[in-house]
Amino acid sequence: MCLNFYIYTNTDNMQTSTTEDYLKAIFKLSGIYKKGVSTNSIAEELSTKASSVSDMVKKLSEKKLVDYVKYQGTTLTKEGENIALKVIRKHRLWEVFLVEKLKFGWDEIHEIAEQLEHIKSPKLIDKLDAHLGFPKKDPHGDPIPDKNGLFPTIKKLKLNELKIGEKAILTGVSEDSKDFLSYLDTIGLKLGSSIEVLDYFKFDKSLKVKINNRSDLTFSDLVANNLNISKEN
Amino acid sequence: MCLNFYIYTNTDNMQTSTTEDYLKAIFKLSGIYKKGVSTNSIAEELSTKASSVSDMVKKLSEKKLVDYVKYQGTTLTKEGENIALKVIRKHRLWEVFLVEKLKFGWDEIHEIAEQLEHIKSPKLIDKLDAHLGFPKKDPHGDPIPDKNGLFPTIKKLKLNELKIGEKAILTGVSEDSKDFLSYLDTIGLKLGSSIEVLDYFKFDKSLKVKINNRSDLTFSDLVANNLNISKEN
DNA sequence: AAAAATTTTTAGACAACACTAAAAAATTTG
DNA sequence: CAAATTTTTTAGTGTTGTCTAAAAATTTTT
Ligand SMILES: [Mn+2]
Ligand SMILES: [Mn+2]
Ligand SMILES: [Mn+2]
Ligand SMILES: [Mn+2]
Q1: Strand C–CB B12 distance below 7 A
Q2: Are the C-beta atoms of residues B76 and B60 closer than 8 Å to each other?
Q3: Which residues of chain B have pLDDT under 50?
């Protein structure tokens, strides 16, 4: 009887799309700040207010999805991380679908995937995965977690870490906004493009680069910081 | 100034998935009862309580999506009907996707489509439509409204309207539940199957039928009433 | 280490939706 | 047509998630 009570406690652990978005945001921010994630940073990531976040992390903590101590930030529990990884898997697989099958541009898919990632079905995602041929990366170069939430941790090298004269291949982007991605489209930069650093200006940290051995142009540090690369040779 | 006010009034007419489901339910029920749709019937269709429906139709009426007079039932306005038809278009296109592309059975798709139909994106559905080759019917034989909400009104003939000796082709089903559809699967009945009425039992209105010129079996009136057919010859 | 600035939490409201119980209206029945 | 039954609405609550304003804690500055 007492055992029963224990077992069935917390069994109704189905998430709303809101709680899924919170867990995803905390997961993303955990990769950046290694300590507990700050209330303000979650609020900014989700375009909401700190007071709303404060309320929510308290509730997530009751559900044992996060560890939260007042004034000391939030970290995911194993359970919370599992849920976040499942949502990220769904988000990235749907993004592949939108680009590969429906022919959307990589700059148009984020908002749609933000909705599709919350569709609940035990079978749907694995069927989608198979339909897409078990892709390993999404259209932005991000790795897709497998059924068990595992994916290779690729050390991300940013374009602004290169020295003058070095060459690299674009392997991913750290920013999914339409503004950023359609700018890359207009300059002809896509995953796999080659980038050579021609010059570096100390004043504003901007870079003069040559892309695809053709056009010369200048990247601000902010742009360069959102371009993930792997060094050539 | 006054004009401005008028124009921008009611401009924020974005629906929640709840209101979309209400509008869809009212549309479906309007086809059956030609008068105003009763509060109780909406409640039953949506598995909710009459008091909740009473609240909601009042709100939908304020948004000019339904006409509602206390104690006299609810009907869709033109605007409400347009929204309902868009949701139905999305539901049926996603069902085609799930069966044709992801290889789901027709008995597994209803609940998933019930979620997918609420995804908001101006471009998504037309791209999906193109990807699927502009299908005209969903996996249950229901017509798919076009971009403008138009679809042919097919007069539905039900199996229990046939006389002994008549033959027909299964063109659709009026019931989407897994229980019903997987029963049809086990007896090998699918869209396009031929059905011949061998006998009719007055007592319970059940029918003895031969399907695909092979097996003989008996259908209750309830089953026969959910099988849509077109007469052969 | 006190003052100032920033971050975080609490308090109090609100909107959307759902529910139960009870009241009111409409319909069916005898 | 009055009584009984059914349908519908209202009243009062609860839950989830959001917000603003104000209080409290923490961190930074001087
Ligand atoms: Mn989302
Ligand atoms: Mn992505
Ligand atoms: Mn739905
Ligand atoms: Mn259908």
Answers
A1: no
A2: no
A3: 1-11
